[in-house]
Amino acid sequence: QVQLVESGGGLVQPGGSLTLSCVASGFTFNAYHMSWYRQAPGKERELVASISKTADVTRYGDSVKGRFTISRDNDKNTVYLQMNNLKSEDGAVYYCTRAWGPGEYWGRGTRVTVSS
After folding, report:
1. Which residues in the chain land under pLDDT 50?
2. C or N: which end of the chain has fewer Cβ atoms within 10 Å?
């Protein structure tokens, strides 16, 4: 069955960095685009970034452009989200999904807290 397992979240100070990982299993990873979404308390889930199956095309939400980088390693069935210059408003639960947009399958998420 399709499984997506996120990790790498935690507590970080404003201006700090974190790298999230999402390990996929149960499907042919290199045949699918992948995306990261996030959801903060009381807010709707929003797109963070997407990456094409061959990693040649990426897109980012406006609020993270220039600070976050999405990448993937098809040999490791893993998609990454490098987050730099984190702000308090980046605090949320981050999810990966198997799609260019909101997909059918989601992981359980990893929580990122940005606080001093």
Report:
1. none
2. N
Q: CA distances (Å), 61 to each of 24, 26, 76, in order?
A: 22, 28, 25
User: Which three-class secondary structure state does DSSP give residue 45?
Assistant: coil
State the Cα–Cα distance between residues 50 and 16, nearest whole angstrom: 22
Res 102: pLDDT: 84
d(CA 23, CA 15): 26
Give the integer Cα–Cα distance in Å for 84 and 105. Answer: 27
Please name the residues in contact with 14: beta carbons below 8 A apart, sequence gap of 6 or more.
86, 87, 88, 114, 115, 116
Q: Report the alpha-carbon distance of residue 54 to residue 37 in Å, rounded.
A: 20
Query: Any idea which residue has 């807010």 for tokens?
Result: 43
